[in-house]
Hints:
Helices cover 55% and strands 5% of the residues. By secondary structure, the chain is mainly alpha-helical. The strands form two sheets. It has a four-stranded parallel beta sheet.
Amino acid sequence: MNSQIFHPFVLPFVFGMAFVLTYCVVGLLRVIGQLPKDDRKKFWRSLVTPKTAWANIRDLIGDCLFHVKIWKRNPVLGYMHTAIAFGWFMIIVIGHVMLFTLKPLEGVEIQGVERMFPNFYYPIFFKYFAEETPVFAFLMDFFLLMIISGILIAVVKKIHSKIVGVKRIMHFGFADNMIRFALWTIFPFRLIAEKSNIMAFWWLYSIDLMVFMFMLPFTRYMHIPTEALFILLRHAGLKPREPRKGYALAQIYSCPSCGLCIDACPMSVNDKNSGNTSAYFMKRLRNGDKEEAQRIAETCMQCGKCVAVCPVSIESCDIKMSQREAVPYQIKSDHAYLDEYEPIKVESRVSVLYFAGCMTQLTPKIMHAMKQIMEAAGEQYELMDKDGGVCCGRPMLLSGKTAEAQAMMAKNTELIKKSGAKRLVLSCPICYKVFKEEYHLEGIEILHHTQYIDELIKQGKLKVDKNDINYVYHDPCELGRAFGVYDEPREVIESIGHLRKAKSEKELSICCGGSLGSFNLTQQERDEITANSVNDLMFNHPDEIVTACPLCLKTFVRKSPVAVKDIAEVVANQLR
């Protein structure tokens, strides 16, 4: 214990702390100020709403300290992040607890607030200024060694990432490499300083902290303070309005650039496309590289797998869409043809309206199978687009042409409401997504045909026979990851045959490669993605591949060694 209450070696830390706190306060005001007025109201209201307040506490602890989502994907990386984040948090907490419990230092009164200010550096350099009790000393050493063990894993990950289960890691510039080195050395310097009490190591520890904090706002490590703000904004139910303002800005700086989305992205089957993944998109936005960010946004297939594996739950697909909307694409749009469509005339007893959609129109066997199913179940239905129809609007939305999409959606809304039907059934997950998220069809239930068929079977309206065929089911991106429709199609398949597992399924299902989301992928690059997805589906040697998306069906047929069918087809074939 040293009798003095101040030593110049604490100044680098003090300057660094003052800088980073000032930067964070200014950044917080900037993000809140950039939110639209209605979003700001939602945000402030959410902070005092019990349900969202509990969700905020749960995720602040689970995501910021324990990184539970990383544990689920990769326990080694989960421990690495938890060891550093939770360990660092605990030594700060223990330092403050010790500060409030130690005896007054010679020559200074440290009661109440005076224990914290102006000498707020005490908890950071506690062992220099005061003695610890045995219990506190053990806890401090335990968590410090825990942090160092996490850093050792980080070093191994950097040198040979495959040892910790990561195929690809991100490449960073000078600033990120320098701050990473500072982070890796902070705690070894602290340990040496505490055990040796050599002044040079106390200076190195303090300077290292200063370097880390001065560089923090300009590197990926800014995610450490920003992630907490992002969690609060996310639970307020906000959506990105612009690619680099407000809510989107909070997400950009919350991205830890951990690289988990790189291995998950279907495009990474080709190494040259790993730079088109969400981690690099967020990095480009953070660095202000608008042109490269735009290119990545246009290349993305919008499959959502990066969002599914993101340990921070960053909505990168939404930010890419806002990036597309910011560009005035030269697309000529003439909607005069919309006036030619008259509302559907149906009898009052018709309760189900079936919308096939563009892709199902190009795959008529799905529509024929659905007609068989509805007739076998005794359903009173009408085909909304039996003679052709208006697109749901999703392709225009994907290209950022919101006004054009809204014109299509307005016409469809008119047709649906005037039909008098109370249920809308769709075979295309792309249509399903846009009808669920973009349309306002109050009083009308929207169902994907997998949900509808499952309901008919469970209610006993549809009688099916079981065969001995081994099926594997492919989860379409827009149906599975977007809406969590995983159980219904599997239960349908189990009722007509035997279901085998794919290597990756449900939220980790691999995109078929035919996605309308990408503007730039070549056919060869798409074929590589398709072949990778087919190999994944063939993992347990099924007899047939079943999907629930007409686009996936058309895409898989070209590469699959076995028959590929829509779920409606296999059910129609087993009708009793």
